Amino acid sequence: MAVLSTGRVLGAVVGIYAAQSIVGGLVFQSVPAVLRQQGQPLGLIGLVWLLMLIHALKFLWSPAVESLRLRPDGTRHSRHIILSGQLATALLLAVLAMAGTDTVTLFAILALATIATATVDIACDAFAVEQLPRQARGWGNAMQVGGAYLGIMLGGGGFLIAVGRFGWEPAAMAIAACMVVFAIPLLLTPEPLGDAARQAAHRPSLRDALRRPAFRIGLLTVLAAQIALRIGYGMLGPFLIDRGFDLETLGWLTGLGGTLAGLAGTIVAATILAHHDVGRVLRLAVATQGVIFILLAAAAMTPDLPREALMALPLLLGFIAGASFVVLYSAMMGWATGPQPGVDYALLQSADAALAAIAGMSAGLLGQFIGIDACFVLAAALALVMAVLLPGLARRAERGA
């Protein structure tokens, strides 16, 4: 059975996740900021997070995608699924360029693009799990998260900068073109044959994943690790807009600056993971999230805080978010190394996405009715509590994987 070189896999992984994350950056960073500048209420902005429910539900069709991806003769069709989905998404982004910012049309097009990327995610994650050797998993996750940050930088901060300078249509056409460019490394990467006997004998199903106790503990670990970040991060853009930051400045700060900080976090986390237990590293990352959310809450309660201090906080949060994702995704890969990695990983990500949707909408309502500072206080408290629980959960899931 042919095996791809690790370097080639890492290059393809960067391109895959950069392309996938363009839509995420657009939906969850750019659109909330644009809507806020137009004077839309936080309650409406929070509805953007309903689109995350699509990612939360993708586990329902993951067995069908996995059955299409893994054929009984040993062939794998990950590339075909990924490239087809990314082309469809690029076309939708081109339509978005011409459609403008009418709220109903905007939500409809973004919903279709999110369905496409959620479906492609199943094949993306399976490709990464299958092609990355265990010893390269930490750096593979760094490339995965790094590529995702690159896509978020373009769909989030880069898009905001382009909108501020050139307008909506050129900005949307530019990110559609980026989607096509990022597909090239995978297009040039052949996919090795799988184990024909194993693929023919196994029928992908949700039941196969959920019947494993260790996998269920892994699901719980994902929720515990992500709940604070999902509640607090969603209010960062609206908070800075309310403090007088314009879209272009916000784009540079949370887009380029936050992305570079996140990339630094991925490198630091990958290095630490090579020498330390994943549960302990995850506890450190989540506890640090708690400290940063305490600082954000204090900033939200201090109207005359200098602008420079406000600008430092998103960078700190971006750094620790990048580190947290690398550690968590490394653990998730270990829990999804069975005969149906697409289904297993989709379930883990769906749990995170469901949490993000619920937390994002809840944060929007909290911000509207009792203040953004309350969101940051809640996020800080949850992070500090979960940091205590995470090492034990991660060890139990790892022992059963």
From TrEMBL:
- Lineage, top-rank taxon, reads Bacteria
Please give the SUPFAM superfamilies that the UniProt record associates with this protein: MFS general substrate transporter
Tell me which UniProt keywords the record has, alphabetically. Membrane, Transmembrane, Transmembrane helix, Transport
Q: What is its main location?
A: membrane
- Annotated localization: Membrane
**Classification via InterPro entries:** AmpG_permease/AT-1, MFS, MFS_trans_sf
Q: How does it sit in the membrane?
A: Multi-pass membrane protein
Among Pfam families, the record links this protein to: MFS_1 (PF07690)
Transmembrane regions listed in the UniProt entry = 42-61, 81-100, 106-128, 148-168, 174-193, 214-233, 253-274, 281-303, 309-331, 369-390
The record's section on Gene3D superfamilies has:
MFS general substrate transporter like domains (1.20.1250.20)
Xref: PANTHER family: MAJOR FACILITATOR SUPERFAMILY DOMAIN-CONTAINING PROTEIN 3 (PTHR12778:SF10), SOLUTE CARRIER FAMILY 33 ACETYL-COA TRANSPORTER -RELATED (PTHR12778)
Q: Which family does it belong to?
A: Belongs to the major facilitator superfamily.
Protein name, entry field = MFS transporter
Source organism: Neoroseomonas terrae
